[in-house]
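User: Fold this; C-alpha cells only.

Assistant: Input:
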Amino acid sequence: MVETAAGPMPAYTETLPRIPESVAHARRLVDLALSVWGLSGVQDIAEIVVSELLTNAVQHARRDSVRVTVTRLGDEEVRVAVVDLSRTRPKLRAADADEEGGRGLAIIDGLSRGRWGVDPKPWGKQVWADLAPDKESPGE
C-alpha cells in the first residue's frame, strides 16, 4: 500500500540497481501488478512508460539504485513512478530528427495524455505518469 491524499492505495514497488538491465525487471513488475489487478487495458502503455522513465534514470541520475512503483489509483487508472537520487528535473523537449535519444518525455506525455509530473524530494525526485485505457471508440 502507498499512502496518498486519498488514503492508502494498492501498490507494487521495488528498488532496482541503476543499470540498463533493470528496465526489463521494471516491465515485469508492471506486468505483475496489472495482471493481479486485471488492468490489461493499460498494460502496453505502462510497459513503455516505465521503460522510458527508468531509462532516463539510468542515463541521467546518480547513485546506484532507483525505486519503481506501480500504484492503483482507481478502477482503471494506475500511476507508474520512478524515484532516483538526482535533483535535476527532466525537461520535455523536441528532439531533432537526427538525434538517437531525447524523446522519452514526449512519449510519456503522449501516452499519459499530459498527466505526468515530477515531485522533488530532499534527496532526489520522483517522476510519474498516470495512465488509463483510451475510452474513445475506434470510429471516433
